[in-house]
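INTERNAL AUDIT FORM
Audit reference: QA-55
Scope: verify that the stored structure record matches its stored sequence.
Auditor: D.O.
Record contents follow.
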Amino acid sequence: MTAAKQEFLDGLRLVLPILVAPVSFSFITGAISVQKGLSAFEATLMSATVFAGGGQLLALEVWYEPQAWLLVMLAAVSINVRFALQAASVQRKINHFTPVQRWLTIATLNDPAWGMSEIRHLSRQVSFWFIFGITVPIYLIWEFGTLAGALLGKLIDDPTKLGLDFAFVGIFIALALPFWKRSGAVPVALASGSVAIAAKLAGFSAMYVFIGAMAGVAMAGLLAARRAKQVQTP
């Protein structure tokens, strides 16, 4: 077995247990899309080009006739800005990739691929084929799940009442657990989470994720500055 094939299968094996999340979430996204007036083709095309569940659902929340395109775009960007932070985090781990591999990795970056790459980096070098093995099944399921939801979702009055969207919350928790032992992880998570909740309650419905992320970045910067000062102090 070639090294590339082994790496691909390693990524595939790791992502298999959590594929229930994109299955359920994509179905909900497709169903809500058609209820908002999109066709099955438009809903599937949106998933194929945007490939961001949270951003798509948030954009659909503010989707109405006539469409306020600027508001829709701002809503999608606000929740997807986390991918810029994830890309910055993973960039130094993929410097050995070819230019095409780096572009594909960043262009299709998703939460499980980012989280599993960070965890794998703790013990060994991350390969393109490892990330590819995680991303390919998620992408395919996302497209077929959206199409299924768009075609069958009208049979369900309110897809969100099924609670299937909680699957992604569970995935986020599972991805975050391995980082708790890192220095500063707890205060960063508390700062980010508490500020995000406060922003949501304050009415920043389309920006609370970004605000919470920036609070976490600020806390991480303060902790890093404190450690640097302690090192410099004789």
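Auditor finding: record pair retrieved intact. The two ends are 54 Å apart (CA to CA).
Action required: none
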